[in-house]
Structures are given as C-alpha cells and as structure tokens.
C-alpha cells in the first residue's frame, strides 16, 4: 500500500461541537494527555486564558478574554493519528466554526448533563447535518446532579432528531456516581475519586453481575441500574456503524471530563470507529484520499499569529496524496504555481515545520494576503473543492472613513478581511457606500481594530437600514438583467463580485421574492 494511503487510513480528523461551558476545553486537555501530547493537566486551560502568548493577535481579545481563533492539535493514539480542530467558542464567530466543520471527517458533541441540549449545539448540529457528518456524543459532568440519563437520550433524539445508541451507561450520578457500564463489553468501570482513570488505573469488573460489585456499588443502586438498562435496551438502538457513518445515529458516552472519567472509553471507541478521510466533492469529480497527487483546500485564515511578522496563516486540509516539505502546487484560483515551502504542522498546538502531511492532516501556509478561504491547491488536475459556505450576515453597518484619502487602503483592507472570512463587505450598485456585514457585533470591533492596526485606516461604523442579505441568481441572463434594473436600489456586490440583495425589512424581502419568481434568493453561498 502506498505510504499516503496507509497514513490516510490511520487519520481521525474531528472537531468538538458544544455550547460554551459544556466542557470542550477540559475534554480536549484529557485527550491530549492520553495522546502524550501534554504532560500536565491544566496546560490547555492556562492557554485558554493566556492564549495571546501563542497565537492571539489582538489586545481586544485579551481584554474580552474570549477566543476568536481556532487551532489544530495533532496527537498519536493507539496507532492512529488524531487531528482535533478547535472551534472558536464565541457565538459571534460562528461562521469560522461552520467552516472548520467542512474540514473534519466527524464531530464529537459534548453535552452538560444538567443543561441538556443547548442552543448553540442545535445550530452546530444543523451544520453537521448539511454534510451528514458522523457524530459521537459525550454527556459530561456526571459528577454533578443532572437530568436522568434516559431523559438526556430522549432530549437528544427529540431536539436534535438523531437516534441514540448508548455505548456506556452511568451507575448513579452526582454524589452517587459509582461508575459506568460498557454496554458492548459488559465491563463495569468504577469511579473512585483521586484516580486518573487510564486503562491501567481503573478498577474494572467483567460484568454487572459480578458478586464483588455489590459491595462497591450497593445492591439498591445496582437494581435501579438493571431496571434502567432493561428499559433502555428495549427502547434505544444498538450501535450500527453504517448508520453512525451516515450521520443517522449517534453513539453516546457518559462521563466526567474534569475527573477524566469515561474519557478513555470514548477515545478508544472513537479511534476505532470514527471515519478516516473520505473522498471529497470537487468541481468535475470526487477526490479520493488514495489519489497520489497532492490536493487540499483552505478552510480558515488566521491573521497575525506572529505579531512581529504580520503574517497570515492559511489552514489547508490535505485531501489526497501527500505534502512534502518544499512541494510546489497550483493555486487554482490564480492559476499560479506556489511553493508551499515552510508549511506548519500543529503537533499538539506547537507550531512546527512540516516535513510530511497526509490526507486528514492540516498544514499552515504563510502568505501575505494572496490566499483566500476555499482556495484549492493541487499538483493534479486544476479542480476546485466545493462545499465551503458563506452565510448571509445578520448585522450591517455603513463604514465612515475619518480621512477620505485613505479610501484605497480601506478597500484593500476590507477585501483582504473578507477573503479571510473575518467579515463580509458590500458595495451598493447605486451609491458609494461601503457596507459591512457580520454574524455577531464583536466582528465589527475586530474589523475596526484590524483596519487601524494593519492598514492605518480609522473608520467608524454607523447603523444602516438593512435587515438581511440574499445572494441572487437566475437561470437566464435576461431575467437577471431585468431584475438588476428593477431592483437596483437594493442591489450590491460582495467582495468577490457576486450580486446581493440587501433587504431593508423582512416584508420587503418577501415582496421582492414574490415579484421576481424567476430569481433565486439564497441565504448561503459557496465560495468559488
Ligand atoms: P468549554 O471549553 O466548553 O467552554 O468548557 P470548559 O472545558 O472550559 O469547562 C467549563 C467549566 O466546566 C469549567 O469550570 C470546567 O472545570 C467545568 N467542567 C468541565 N468538565 C467537568 C466535569 O466533568 N464536572 C464538573 N463538575 N465540571 C466540569 P470553570 O469553573 O469555568 O473553570 P475552572 O476554574 O474549573 O477551570
């Protein structure tokens, strides 16, 4: 088997989706401990609060104490190579998160057992569904009182509309937490405070019927669990890998990330069953990871990871072949060949120079603004990967420039920031306004800060009467031309030159749609 095919088969590339505070950071840290990537608990946590030390570029971010950046962590586990793509937690940066989800092969959903399914998880799940991404579920914080396990499964099934296949089942909860049963092996793993719960460190009983277990757990609790299990096994679904891989069933684990309990059972199952890189859609055809020619697409651009060098790092997901240090690849959008010289890999978030990378891996390419979100690089056919979305912004501002002579700088800055996906900007057909669109208000602050810091442009934002944006398409050019004339006052071009309808109100949008039945109004757009 060629090296890149064997290497691809052992890759597991995923992201964690959760509502803030469910325990994503804590769980990430435990994974890294198991992967030998960090030695001490607390390292990820402290990075979270002092993140500016490694990757953050903005004082704004420090002031806010939130993370607007996402990173990639690679670690080996059990013969596999796991790539964990972090997603920014703050809701204002959801667009970034959505794009990270286009670069993974599966997702892990973390749910707080006391809170159940929360709003952001619902949104992220919708995004996963667009690509039928397989999802595993970890129900966290079992050391606290929460909803009953049956209730939690029911909530996931009802709210997220995905059948659950419990793989572990808790024995007690909160102060009564005694352990979990692995429903596929029958083993009981005890929860004992002060332990680290690695395979070596856990007390494991072969079955719930083991007589010695009564002493440890208590007859009453065991009876309760037996009853619960009889109920659950009748009502829930056995694990079916095909359904899981099709995004039609989620295996569910219970545990406590902060206590490292139930985490290794999850990780063992994850590396065994989660999918390796699959073929990806591109213009013309699908691209298989087994193809020898290197190819990949950019799903994220992060500016100023190193403030001294003002660099931008484009995060590229490798889709086929292999990357070797110094490789030259075609940058399909510009038609130019680029030497991807000093790409970075992200071994447990240390930035290192990559010698090799294989399908499923992410490399970071330095550039000065030539690379945009959704760009494809390849040494094979000049194809373009598809399926990387832009979402219609929900908030709009008009930009006012303090010094009109800086207009060129402003335009350059806005073009680059929208290529990075940091914001979207629109130029109305009939005015000289520059309109900025965002998903969350914090994005405007980021843009204002970066315009000043990087482009020397002082700009302020003022409210503008725009409710929403829709990209415009029509089957025939003449229909489009007619609409363009009729609706010109509400039309604008986005940074890539695509036509957009800026609706002042919901009613206006509805009327425009009714009056122009041959025109297609879309709320998402694929980068092309
Ligand atoms: P996030 O990345 O999803 O936002 O969540 P994070 O891991 O930061 O966890 C949010 C809070 O929940 C943290 O507490 C963390 O310690 C706690 N937590 C995570 N897993 C568990 C668990 O299994 N049980 C319990 N009881 N708590 C858990 P914090 O007070 O915000 O931070 P810290 O001071 O504890 O670090």
TrEMBL record:
Segments forming domain Tr-type G: 9-278
Cytoplasm as UniProt keyword: yes
InterPro entries: EF-G-like_DII, EFG_III/V, G_TR_CS, P-loop_NTPase, PrfC, RF3_C, RF3_dom_3_sf, RF3_GTP-bd
Source organism of this protein record: Stenotrophomonas aracearum
PROSITE patterns per UniProt: G_TR_1, G_TR_2
Binding site residues for GTP: 18-25, 86-90, 140-143
Entry similarity comment: Belongs to the TRAFAC class translation factor GTPase superfamily. Classic translation factor GTPase family. PrfC subfamily.
Alphabetic keyword roster: Cytoplasm, GTP-binding, Nucleotide-binding, Protein biosynthesis
Record's protein name: Peptide chain release factor 3
Subcellular location: Cytoplasm
Main location: cytoplasm
UniProt entry tagged with the keyword Lipid biosynthesis: no
Role noted for this protein: Increases the formation of ribosomal termination complexes and stimulates activities of RF-1 and RF-2. It binds guanine nucleotides and has strong preference for UGA stop codons. It may interact directly with the ribosome. The stimulation of RF-1 and RF-2 is significantly reduced by GTP and GDP, but not by GMP.
């Amino acid at each position: 088997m060629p090296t890149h095919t064997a290497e691809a088969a052992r890759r597991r590339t995923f992201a964690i989706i959760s509502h803030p505070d469910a325990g994503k950071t804590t769980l990430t840290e435990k994974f890294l401990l198991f992967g030998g990537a960090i030695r001490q608990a607390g390292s990820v946590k402290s990075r979270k609060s002092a993140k500016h030390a490694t990757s953050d570029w903005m004082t704004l971010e420090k002031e806010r104490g939130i993370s607007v950046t996402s990173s990639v962590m690679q670690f080996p586990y059990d013969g596999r190579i796991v790539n964990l793509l972090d997603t920014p937690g703050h809701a204002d940066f959801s667009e970034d998160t959505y794009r990270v989800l286009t670069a993974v092969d599966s997702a892990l959903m973390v749910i707080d057992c006391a809170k159940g399914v929360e709003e952001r998880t619902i949104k992220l799940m919708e995004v996963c569904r667009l690509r039928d991404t397989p999802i595993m579920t970890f129900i966290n914080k079992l050391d606290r009182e929460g909803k009953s396990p049956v209730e939690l499964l029911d909530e996931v099934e009802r709210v997220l509309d995905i059948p659950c296949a419990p793989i572990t089942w808790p024995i007690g909860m909160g102060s009564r937490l005694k352990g979990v049963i692995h429903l596929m092996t029958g083993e009981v793993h005890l929860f004992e405070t002060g332990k680290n719960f690695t395979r070596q460190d856990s007390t494991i009983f072969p079955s719930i019927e083991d007589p010695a277990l009564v002493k440890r757990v208590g007859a009453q609790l065991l009876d309760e669990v037996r009853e619960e299990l009889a109920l659950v096994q009748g009502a829930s679904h056995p694990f079916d890998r095909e359904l899981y891989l099709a995004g039609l069933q989620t295996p569910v684990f219970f545990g406590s990330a902060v206590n490292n309990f139930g985490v290794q059972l999850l990780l063992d199952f994850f590396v065994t069953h989660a999918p390796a890189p699959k073929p990806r859609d591109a213009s013309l055809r699908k691209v298989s990871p087994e193809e020898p020619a290197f190819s990949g697409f950019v799903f994220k651009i992060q500016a100023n990871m190193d403030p001294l060098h003002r660099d931008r790092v484009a995060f590229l997901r490798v889709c086929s072949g292999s990357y070797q240090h110094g490789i030259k690849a075609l940058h399909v959008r510009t038609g130019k060949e680029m030497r991807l010289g000093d790409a970075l890999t992200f071994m447990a978030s240390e930035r290192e120079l990559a010698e090799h990378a294989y399908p499923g891996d992410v490399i970071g390419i330095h550039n000065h603004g030539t690379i945009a979100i959704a760009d494809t690089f390849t040494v094979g056919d000049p194809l373009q990967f598809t399926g990387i979305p832009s979402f219609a912004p929900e908030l709009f501002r008009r930009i006012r420039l303090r010094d009109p002579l800086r207009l060129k700088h402003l335009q350059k800055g806005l073009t680059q920031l929208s290529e990075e996906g940091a914001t979207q900007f629109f130029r109305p057909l009939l005015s000289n306004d520059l309109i900025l669109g965002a998903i969350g208000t914090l994005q405007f602050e980021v843009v204002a800060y970066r315009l000043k810091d990087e482009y020397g442009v002082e700009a302020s934002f003022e409210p503008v009467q725009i409710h929403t944006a829709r990209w415009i398409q029509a089957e025939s050019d003449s229909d489009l031309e007619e609409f363009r004339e009729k609706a010109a006052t509400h039309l604008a071009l986005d940074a890539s030159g695509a036509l957009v309808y800026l609706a002042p109100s919901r009613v206006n949008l509805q009327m425009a749609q009714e009056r122009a039945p041959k025109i297609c109004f879309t709320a998402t757009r694929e980068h092309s």
